[in-house]
Amino acid sequence: MSPTFSDKARGASRILGTGRCVPEEVITNEDLEKIIDTTDEWITTRTGMKRRHKVAEGEATSDLAAVALRRAGEDAGIELTDLDAIIVGTASPDMPFPSTACFVQQHLNLPGIPVFDISAACSGFIYGSTLANSLIAAGQFEMVAVIGAETLTRITNYQDRSTCVLFGDAAGAAIFGPSDGERGVIAAYIGADGNLSHLLNMPGGGSREPATHETVDARRHFIHMEGSEVFKSAVRAMESSAKRAIEIAGIRLEEVDLLIPHQANVRIIKALTSRINIPPEKVYINVQEYGNTSAASIPIAFDEARELGIVSEGSVIVMVAFGGGFTWGSLVVRL
Ligand code: ACO
């Protein structure tokens, strides 16, 4: 059955505020040249990346997530005690359990409300936002925080030059609250294909391959990716989900003010842009600064675009994600 977006879900919630947290330490392409056989030229032409950020010793995903949520609360002008739920999308949780959302709740001292993680890799923020909108539409909650947060440098294999240049750490948050009519989520679309899970995963540390000395020695606790296969699927899935969400929203492409794609690779974004046929000036790109921050990439780009005044009240924004699973999804909001 193809997923649908009900009339009840349409416009049920709107984004009240956003925030982000990016760690200070920067890994440049030149830094990577010193530890692996690569060049700034290769990384720049193949990925568009120049820098990525890295958490400090002892810092974890929830530390970044809590700061991003606090900033989103300030931006929204609400007290975080008004939240009814917190959802965290992450592929690099503080621990296998409890959820990273529980640690965020602890940092912010918000006991009592339900909090949980979503495991949808780079699509985590779009999955979480879709769910937040549905929960608000169902009348279950009024105000829900969605955070995409990652410390991918913790699970990056710095002996594998084809993946280690790609990933960075960051968190971005958005607070969803009741809509005021015109403004709000006007489409959401999510999907997945578990048949392709072998192309992008972290094989060790779960019930399939519990941690042993052998799994550690074989570097099974790091991201494994078959880059060119992921690349092709990413372009296809992001194209179809962006188009599907625009169709569900019932808007024309010309009405879209900004496309925020998952920041995995500038070549993926350019291929997507030309397939959708949207002008490049309407596409937000910051992959040069942060690398691929998985679930954090869309909310930090969204927060930046708002801060820079690229979008403002009334703007129509299409966000589109793709990640391990494979998972994909798209959200259309009128700000
Ligand atoms: N420096 C120099 N050379 C390199 C490097 C490097 N860092 N990495 C790979 N190469 C070499 C390879 O060894 C290969 O050499 P060979 O031809 O002699 O064998 C050559 O470059 C080409 O390698 P490819 O893997 O074919 O390079 P490609 O153009 O596909 O780029 C990349 C690789 C950047 C990984 C790309 O495939 C990509 O971006 N894939 C998608 C990533 C993505 O979208 N991830 C999304 C989800 S992430 C998540 O969910 C956590």
Kindly describe this structure.
The chain is α/β, with parallel strands linked by helices. Helix content is 33%, strand content 23%. It has eleven helices and 13 strands. It has helices at 29-35, 40-47, 61-76, 100-108, 124-137, 161-164, 213-217, 227-249, 266-276, 287-290, 297-307, and strands spanning 13-21, 25-28, 51-54, 85-89, 115-118, 144-151, 169-178, 184-192, 200-201, 224-225, 258-261, 316-323, 327-334. A five-stranded mixed sheet has the order 1-7-6-4-5, sandwiched between helices. 52% of the residues are buried. The site of acetyl coenzyme *A has 24 residues, from α2, α6 and α8.
Mean pLDDT: 97
Could you tell me which ligands this complex binds, including any ions or cofactors? acetyl coenzyme *A
Tell me the CATH topology of the largest domain: Peroxisomal Thiolase, Chain A, domain 1
β-sheet strand percentage: 15-25%
CATH superfamily of the largest domain: Thiolase/Chalcone synthase
* Rg: 19 Å
Number of domains: 2
Instruction: Catalogue the unreliable spans.
Output: none
Tally of extended strands?
A: 13
Roughly how much helix do the residues carry, as a percent range?
A: 25-40%
- SSE string: EEHHEHEHEHEHEEEHEHEHHHEE
The helix count comes to 11
- Outline the biggest β-sheet: 5 strands, mixed
Provide tags for this entry:
binds acetyl coenzyme *A; Peroxisomal Thiolase, Chain A, domain 1; 335 residues; 13 strands; 11 helices; alpha/beta
Short description:
With 335 residues, the protein is an alpha/beta fold.
SSE map:
Blueprint: E1 13-21, E2 25-28, H1 29-35, H2 40-47, E3 51-54, H3 61-76, E4 85-89, H4 100-108, E5 115-118, H5 124-137, E6 144-151, H6 161-164, E7 169-178, E8 184-192, E9 200-201, H7 213-217, E10 224-225, H8 227-249, E11 258-261, H9 266-276, H10 287-290, H11 297-307, E12 316-323, E13 327-334
Helix pairs in contact: 3-4, 8-9
This protein binds acetyl coenzyme *A.
